[in-house]
Amino acid sequence: AAQAQTPPGVLVVGQIAEPQALDPHAVTAVNDFRILMNVYDGLVRYASGTLEVEPALATDWTISDDGTVYTFTLREGVSFHDGSPFDAEAVVFNFERMLNEDHPYHDTGPFPLSFFFSAIQSVEATGDMEVTFTLDAPYAPFLSNLAYPTGLIVSPAAVMEHGQDFGRNPSGTGAFTFTEWRSNEAVVVEANPDYWDGAPELQAVVFRPITDANTRVAEMLAGGIDVMVEVPPVALSEFSGDSFTVHEQAGPHVWFLILNALEGPFADVRVRQAANYAINKEAIVNDVLEGTAEVAAGPTPPAFAWAYNDALEPYPYDPDRARALLAEAGQPNPEITFYVTEGGSGMLDPVAMGTAMQADLEAVGFDVTIETYEWNTFLGEVNPGLEGKADAAQMAWMTNDPDTLPYLALRTAAWPEEGGFNSGYYSNPEVDALLEEARTATDQDRRAELYREMQTIVQEDAPWVFVANWVQNAVTSDQVEGFGLEPSFFLLLDDVVKN
After folding, report:
1. Do the bridges between strand 44-46 and strand 58-63 make them parallel or antiparallel, or are there none, so unpaired?
2. Measuring CA to CA, which residue among 153, 157, 179, 152 is closest to residue 168?
3. Please, are residues 171 and 157 in contact by the beta-carbon 8 Å criterion?
4. φ and ψ at 89, to 5 degrees?
5. DSSP H/E element including 369
6. 491, exposed or middle or buried, with CB in 10 Å at 0-12, 13-18, 19+?
7. Rounded to the nearest 5°, which phi and psi values hold at 424?
8. DSSP reduced 3-state for 447
9. What CA–CA distance (Å, rounded) separates 15 from 253?
């Protein structure tokens, strides 16, 4: 009966939430990216098992000596799923749509991660199958950002046909073609027999949103799904038998608590530091997350070994120090509102973690009110900023470069009003200057030095409570072969077999 629910050749994936949209330029969550990376391609992609860039829709490229001009040769003979041709003009359309407010289809956004490409001064079709990007300055993460979902190439014809509804009618060049989206039930994609990199082994993939973790576990045990992502740590032992395989993969992940540095108790750095001392992160990692993560020391994940400041020690659990800082700040019993999500990309066990943090904060004098939201509603509350709403909010990021998270979420110019994700309104001109220099430095050793200095300052300023760096997991049934997790946190399913 279980096998009848998931027939051979059809892979059923238990997702953690309903996607926001299937337009890669319009979304920010890894939950959505796990679908999109199978429907679209970028000019480049991450080589399997790494964050190193390799050719995809571009077969090769050159970079000018000054690091500001990138010229890509495009792959011949590729078509979008709607039959329209992939060529240089299609690439230009994609980036102009995101970056040019006067573009006729810019209103199909918003495009919240277009920050990734803010260095682009111009993008031109310098041949039918050649595209040239000119940057306003050298930008070290450019190729890596092109491999990220924001750099995936969508069909201009489909955008023109569907307009603002393109996110529910996607068309790319990827291994799978979109079939249907039944709201809160399933997104279905089918194998693209003409895929330039070889037709997938699977006939179809069904992505099912199952927001409740316990329900997802029950479905996996009963055979209703073949793959489960983000297995709750407490449930991992249930999949230890021969019928299942547990997969783990480290990657650049950081789970943190955004603190509202603009107004309220956390406008005082001493209160922010007190929160970092108050929360027993070791207990959360060991007891709530069952050892599936490490305590975070700052804003940069240790997976970026070349840029990570390993001299930083995490804030120790020190309730007495937390109480002393609150007293010094004249706020022995600060009242805070704390946003928690029921579940979402990379959010580990957010309700249990939120409850544990609430108890630790209250033990040193905080008066904590928790408000819990479904994932997409949560993003709609947090991403526009916490001003006038909340003092703290959970958040998790999986990133592709040490530039990405701090540049999008810690710079003054990344406050939500400016289109960024600095929802707690942190501002430090020294951090701003370090980040601006780091993204234009062409020498990696210099970049590393700048990022390490940034981490030291940010840890001291404590705009976040730095909680955990996660080791991602998934479980597959014994019918599934060829599945693996990627350091990028994406699901790449074109080589998976379902018996």
Report:
1. unpaired
2. 179
3. yes
4. -65, -35
5. strand 367-373
6. buried
7. -100, 0
8. helix
9. 18
Q: Are 335 and 265 in contact (CB under 8 A)?
A: yes
> Using alpha carbons only, what angle is made at residue 100 by residues 98 and 102, rounded to the nearest 5 degrees?
125
H or E element, residue 393 = strand 392-398
The full length of the chain comes to 499
| pLDDT tens for each residue of the chain, 499 residues long | 344 467 889 999 999 999 999 999 999 889 999 999 999 999 999 999 888 899 999 999 999 999 999 999 999 999 999 999 999 999 999 999 999 999 999 999 999 999 889 999 999 999 999 999 999 999 989 999 999 999 999 999 999 999 999 999 999 999 999 999 999 999 999 999 999 999 999 999 999 999 888 999 999 999 999 999 989 888 999 998 889 999 998 889 999 999 999 999 999 999 999 999 999 999 999 999 989 899 999 999 998 989 999 999 999 999 999 999 999 999 999 999 999 999 877 788 899 999 999 999 999 999 999 999 999 899 999 999 999 999 999 999 988 889 989 999 999 999 999 989 999 999 999 999 999 999 888 888 999 999 999 999 999 999 999 999 988 899 999 999 999 999 998 999 999 999 9
Nearest-angstrom CA–CA distance, 171 and 190: 12
- Partner residues linked to 132 by β-bridges: 71, 124
Amino acid 457 reads: I
Angle at 236 between CA 235 and CA 237, to 5 degrees: 95
Amino acid making up residue 261: A
What per-residue string of b and e applies to 39-56 under the rule 16 or more CB within 10 Å gives b? Answer: bbbbbbbbeeeebebeeb
Quick count: other Cβ atoms within 10 Å of Cβ 62?
A: 10
Query: Which among 167, 172, 151 has a CA at the least distance from the CA of 110?
Result: 167
Amino acid letter for position 464: W
CB atoms within 10 A of CB 194: 12
Nearest to 194, CA basis, from 85, 73, 275, 329: 85
Pair of tokens at residue 44: 């480049």
Dmax of the chain from CA atoms? Answer: 68
Residues contacting 361, CB < 8 A, separation 6+: 275, 278, 279, 336, 368
User: Does residue 110 have a cis peptide bond before it, meaning omega lies within 30 degrees of 0?
Assistant: yes
> In the structure encoding, which two tokens stand for residue 272, read together?
């922010």
Residue identified by tokens 């576990």 is 217
Of 296, 317, 285, 321, residue with least CA distance to 455 = 296
The label of the residue with tokens 């959970």 reads: 394
The burial class, CB within 10 Å (0-12 / 13-18 / 19+), for 275 is buried
How many other CB atoms are found less than 10 A from the CB of residue 356?
18
- Of 257, 301, 280, which is closest to residue 469 (Cα–Cα)? 301
What is the pTM (predicted TM-score) of this model? Answer: 0.82
- Bridge partners of residue 373, in order along the sequence: 341
